[in-house]
């Protein structure tokens, strides 16, 4: 039996505790999985007791206010620069875990150079990549990860791959680098996948603490507002389209520059 | 007496940073600055100090943000086109109030320009460069000795005010070799960044640090601007630095900083041999600008000659200082061409009607 609490003279076993997030309501849209990722990161911080051994970097994008929720010291990066900030932090605080949370516009478009080079150098950081195939915060424009034919506010006739290229599969690129020690694609559309995602978060943060190299955790996510779908319909589209194009599972579980 | 070394300005700057207790350097090669990066690439890893040759100047300045945000002594160095690339990060760093030292070993521009020395980045250095209402403290060395001395000062000022400090150098100062001594009595001022830096200090301070430049509510953004302006006012009141040379009886005042001030000083000596009463006010900080002393001497001299290796940028601040009370003229060279004392003296003669 683990931790117990006493209420009204009766002893109860603690089976679940609310994560120690900051007392602020999240701004995410109904049905969006961003909040799930941030809660899971907080759960892992709480369970490992590493609030002061971890530093986070928030991006420009929907997770811009992640520092209002996750309860550890955090920095706010310029658009795309999160991996450069994380590099700077990790190099001067080598015994701390360092993580970024970035969307697909931030990471795969404007910040691709910073991302690839951090992975190639094998920085001891975790990159949480929320890939929902769209620019969420700016109102649903096409991203480098937007699916072929997908309608967005800046691809009204559907993504034309002749004009815009094929969607960028960043996890498949970074797996090739010796610097990455863990590359995985997860989702958060049901309880089973949330549990798997949490395992991935745990493993990645553990890698950062133990200086094993770069962990790249892609959360294949949804964006009900950007996709112009109800939360329920967005789950259907998520499962039928996103997970087909970006198949879930571990891509690489060992690596790092020896 | 400290030991004397014969060093390039770029090397002296790097060595001084090591002696000042640098905790990390992030940079990208660019001529005429690369010796700084090369010097650090040799010595920092051997001393176990953080060093990264970044993938671009854009990344380098953001690594500075990250590491400086942990309350460490961090530096980056670059040259003009590279400093342009860094401007986004500089604006974020200024707003988030992260102490760090930046160095621009200026070369001629605009565009890809030339690799020869220039002072064409004055506006960029003192008027903003990046977006928004912010200021850098800008120090202007004019010798290899000062390339070293100003590094200690830059780190100290950046920590005192939680503000980025720019050392505005140029390709000649970076490349030339002179004798240099390093301070033996330097003591790093006490500095505890726990209150604002991401050091993992939640337990100690009772709340997490949010190192950000995002204040989406207009009132909070304005309050941040007021906070910054109050700090800048304090810097203007306390940190103006300049040198006066033969200004007591001068009828014509030269105003020049950095490499130009060395040439202007020589021109003062040569002009005085010819009986011309000229002097020099040399700003050692161009922001804050020595407005007061320039205004004061405007009551004594007949005119000012602003001497710069540009088409005339600092002259605007000189004009603001004299409030149209006396004539202010410009002498300058661009394209990497260094100033000539003969031309300065010819100009001085003309201005004095001789």
Task: Describe the fold and architecture.
The complex is a heterodimer of chains A (258) and B (354). Chain A is an alpha/beta fold and 258 residues long. Chain A is globular and about 65 Å long. Chain A has one domain: Rossmann fold, CATH 3.40.50.970. Chain A has helices at residues 34-48, 66-69, 82-92, 104-110, 112-121, 161-164, 170-174, 191-209, 224-227, 231-245; strands at 4-7, 10-13, 54-58, 74-76, 97-103, 125-131, 180-186, 214-220, 249-252. In chain A, β7, α8 and β8 (214-220) form a beta-alpha-beta unit. A seven-stranded mixed sheet of chain A has the order 4-3-5-6-8-7-9, with helices on both faces. A two-stranded antiparallel ribbon of chain A has the order 1-2. Chain A starts with a strand and ends in a 6-residue tail after the last strand. Chain B is α/β, with parallel strands linked by helices and 354 residues long. Chain B folds into two domains: 4-199 and 227-237, Rossmann fold (3-Layer(aba) Sandwich), CATH 3.40.50.970; 242-351, Rossmann fold, CATH 3.40.50.920. Chain B has 13 helices and 15 strands. In chain B, the strands form three sheets. In chain B, strands 3-2-4-5-7-6-13 form a seven-stranded mixed sheet, sandwiched between helices. Chain B has a five-stranded mixed sheet with strand order 10-12-11-14-15, with helices on both faces. Chain B has a two-stranded antiparallel ribbon with strand order 1-8. In chain B, α1 packs across α6 and α10 (258-273) crosses α13 (341-351). The longest helix of chain B is centred in the middle third of the chain and has 21 residues, at 218-238. Chain B is globular, with a radius of gyration of 21 Å. The termini of chain B are far apart. The mean pLDDT of chain B is 97. Chain A binds chain B through residues 22, 51-55, 57-58, 64, 67-68, 70-78, 81, 84-93, 96, 113-114, 117, 121, and chain B through 23-24, 26, 50, 52, 54-56, 58-60, 62-70, 72, 74, 88-89, 92, 96, 197-204, 208-214.
């Amino acid at each position: 039996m683990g931790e117990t609490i006493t209420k009204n003279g009766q002893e109860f076993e603690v089976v679940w505790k609310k994560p120690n997030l900051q007392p602020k309501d999240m701004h995410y849209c109904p049905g969006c999985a961003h909040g799930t990722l941030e809660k899971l990161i907080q759960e892992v911080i709480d369970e490992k007791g590493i609030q002061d051994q971890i530093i986070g970097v928030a991006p420009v994008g929907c997770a811009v206010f992640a520092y209002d929720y996750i309860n550890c010291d955090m920095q706010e990066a310029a658009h795309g620069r999160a991996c450069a900030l994380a590099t700077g932090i990790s190099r001067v605080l080598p015994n701390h875990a360092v993580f970024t949370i970035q969307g697909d516009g931030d990471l795969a478009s404007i910040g691709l150079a910073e991302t690839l080079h951090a992975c190639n150098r094998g920085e001891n950081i975790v990159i949480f990549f929320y890939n929902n195939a769209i620019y969420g915060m700016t109102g649903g424009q096409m991203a480098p990860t937007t699916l072929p034919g997908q309608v967005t506010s800046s691809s009204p006739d559907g993504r034309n791959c002749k004009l815009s290229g094929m969607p960028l599969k960043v996890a498949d690129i970074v797996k090739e680098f010796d610097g990455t020690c863990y590359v995985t694609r997860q989702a958060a559309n049901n309880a089973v996948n949330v549990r798997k995602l949490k395992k991935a978060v745990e493993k990645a943060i553990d890698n950062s603490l133990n200086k094993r190299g770069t962990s790249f955790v892609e959360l294949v996510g949804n964006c009900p507002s950007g996709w112009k779908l109800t939360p329920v319909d967005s789950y259907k589209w998520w499962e039928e389209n996103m997970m087909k194009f970006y198949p879930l599972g571990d891509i690489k579980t060992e690596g790092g520059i020896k | 007496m400290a030991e004397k070394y014969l060093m390039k300005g770029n090397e002296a700057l790097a060595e001084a940073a090591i002696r000042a207790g640098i905790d990390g350097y992030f940079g990208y090669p660019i001529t005429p600055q690369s010796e700084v990066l090369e010097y650090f690439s040799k010595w920092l890893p051997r001393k176990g100090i953080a060093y990264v040759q970044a993938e671009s100047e854009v990344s380098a300045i953001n690594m500075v943000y990250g590491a400086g945000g942990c309350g460490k002594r961090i530096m980056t160095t670059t040259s003009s086109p590279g400093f342009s690339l860094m401007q986004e990060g500089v604006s974020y760093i200024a707003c988030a109030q992260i102490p760090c030292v930046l160095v621009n070993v200026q070369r001629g521009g605009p565009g890809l320009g030339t690799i020869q020395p220039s002072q064409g980045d004055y506006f960029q250095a003192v008027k903003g460069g990046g977006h928004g209402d912010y200021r850098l403290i800008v120090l202007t060395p004019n010798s290899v000795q000062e390339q070293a001395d100003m590094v200690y000062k830059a780190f100290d000022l950046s920590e005192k005010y939680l503000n980025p400090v720019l050392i505005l150098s140029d390709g000649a100062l970076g490349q030339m070799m002179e004798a240099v001594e390093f301070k033996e009595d330097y003591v790093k001022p006490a500095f505890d960044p726990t209150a604002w830096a991401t050091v993992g200090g939640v337990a100690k301070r009772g709340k997490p640090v949010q190192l950000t430049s995002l204040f989406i509510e207009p009132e909070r953004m304005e309050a941040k601007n007021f906070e910054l302006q109050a700090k800048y006012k304090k810097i203007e009141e306390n940190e103006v630095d300049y040198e006066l040379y033969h200004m007591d009886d001068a009828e014509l005042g030269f105003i020049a900083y950095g490499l130009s001030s060395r040439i202007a000083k020589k021109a003062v000596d040569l002009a005085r041999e010819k009986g011309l009463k000229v002097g020099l006010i040399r700003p050692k900080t161009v922001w804050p600008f020595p407005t007061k002393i320039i205004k004061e001497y405007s009551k004594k001299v007949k005119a000012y000659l602003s001497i710069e290796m540009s088409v005339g940028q600092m002259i605007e601040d000189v004009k603001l200082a004299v409030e149209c009370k006396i004539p202010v003229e410009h002498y300058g060279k661009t394209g990497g061409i260094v100033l000539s004392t003969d031309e300065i003296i010819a100009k001085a003669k003309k201005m004095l009607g001789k």
